[in-house]
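User: I'm writing a short report section on ligand binding and want a predicted complex to refer to. Could you take this sequence and calcium ion and write out the structure as tokens? A short remark afterwards would be nice.
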Amino acid sequence: MSLVNELKTVDILISFIKNLAREAGGICLEGQKDLTSHDLEFKSAKDIVTEIDKQVESFLVKAILARYPDHGVLGEEYGAVQAKSAFRWIIDPIDGTTSFVHRLPFYSISIALEKEGELVLGVVYAPAIDQLFYAEKGKGAFVGDTPIHVSETRELGNAVMATGFACLRAGLEDNNLPIFNEIVPKLRDIRRFGSAALDLCYTALGSLDGFWEINLNIYDIAAGTVILREAGGVVTDFTGGRQFPEKGFAASNKGLHNELIHILAGFCASA
Ligand code: IPD
Ligand code: CA
Ligand code: CA
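Assistant: Sure. The structure tokens for the complex follow:
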């Protein structure tokens, strides 16, 4: 079967990627057993990477390129492999490495597929809690085999949202704390799980009503964006535009988005 034809039979592609994500999850769970503080490398004072992050990315890239040799890849740890076709995979091997290292359950393997620059498929797997979220553009979003949809929450006062603080990890002066202080008192409550990919999936599930963060990278949000959009949600930059995550990243159940952006737009300089 030709490469393009196989990509049209998406069931094959989806099951291939879901199985890869599960195998990568097994690498995480096995590797975590022997993980010690000596296994940590530091991209900066607080930005941790482990051998397991690298092992997972190598495993995923090797398996994907063995099957789709013309595709491109962008991985967090090893960077870009140039594409000879319209397809590019965007991989965060462990989204939430701090959670992983601290043996907290909220970390995930995040795999997205882009076709001609458009995100068309996303798989996010949380191995510690065995939750596999996935979506293909136009075909709905799922956790396991269950269809998922965003919440119906329309008031910020009834909303639970999530955010993150990569900005503090990077030591940014213009950071998320003023935004946090502005938004959180307006919400029912806030959560900081530690994986942007899972924050987007829990918004798609309707458990969260929104998520925002600054200083994210495309590999943090690519797969979760496909899943949230297919669940009826929306992602934009802080002004409501499409220059995310560079100009801030805002995600919601759509009904809350205008109110969320109305607040975030005032902090565009921080984005
Ligand atoms: C991080 C997680 C975290 C978010 C950071 C990301 P990493 O990813 O998604 O929740 O707040 O901005 O960098 O570094 O663990 O892959
Ligand atoms: Ca990440
Ligand atoms: Ca990562």
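A remark for your report: Residues 71 and 80 are 11 Å apart (CA to CA). The first helix runs from residue 3 to 8.
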